Every structure is written in structure tokens, then in C-alpha cells.
């Protein structure tokens, strides 16, 4: 799905469209993770970042990345294997 946003220029100076898009997807993913809507792996897939960038973003924004069920961790491992060993 493609989504179009009108963002005033004063909020995006010095950034190109790709950088802004990446940042918005990461922030949206972090919010959905924090509210329990997405797992860590799903955020990485949604925001197109690796787990390390996700963990750095969580730390930077004060979001706990450890409060995860065993099932969610298993899902993350399966996603990682599928993306990196397929």
C-alpha cells in the first residue's frame, strides 16, 4: 500500500524523501511495538531495518525491547532465518 502525506517543509529541511519515509516508518513501527500491535520482528520488517537498528531506536526513545513473550521471540527467530538463510 502506498500512503501520501503532506508535510510542511519546515519539518523536513535537510532530508530527502527517502530519509523522511524511513524515519516515519520506524517511528510508526516503534509506536505499534510499544502498544503491543507489532512484535520486534514485525517492526523490523515494516520499517525495513535490522534488529540492531531497531534496538538502537528503542534505546534512543526509551522503549523497552525486552518485555516480549516467548512466542514473539520464536516468531522473530523464524523471520530472521527466513530472511537471511533462504
Report on the architecture of this protein:
The chain is mainly alpha-helical and 86 residues long. It has one domain. The chain contains 4 helices and no strands. α1 packs antiparallel against α2. The mean pLDDT is 89.
What letter string, H or E per element, gives the SSE order?
HHHH
Morphology: globular
Write down how many β-strands occur, each being a DSSP E stretch of 2 or more residues. 0
Q: Which value, in Å, is the CA radius of gyration?
A: 14 Å
The overall pLDDT average reads 89
Short key terms for the protein model shown above:
86 residues; 4 helices
Kindly summarize this structure in a few lines.
By secondary structure, this protein is an all-alpha fold.
Topology:
Elements lengths: L16 H18 L5 H8 L3 H10 L9 H16 L1
Amino acid at each position: 500500500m502506498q500512503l501520501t502525506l503532506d508535510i510542511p517543509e519546515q519539518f523536513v529541511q535537510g532530508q530527502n524523501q527517502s530519509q523522511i519515509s524511513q524515519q516515519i516508518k520506524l517511528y510508526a513501527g516503534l509506536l505499534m511495538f510499544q502498544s503491543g500491535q507489532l512484535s520486534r520482528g514485525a517492526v523490523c520488517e515494516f520499517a525495513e531495518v535490522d534488529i540492531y537498528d531497531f534496538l538502537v531506536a528503542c534505546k534512543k526513545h526509551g522503549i523497552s525491547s525486552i518485555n516480549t513473550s516467548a512466542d514473539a521471540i520464536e516468531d522473530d527467530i523464524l523471520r530472521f532465518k527466513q530472511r537471511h538463510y533462504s
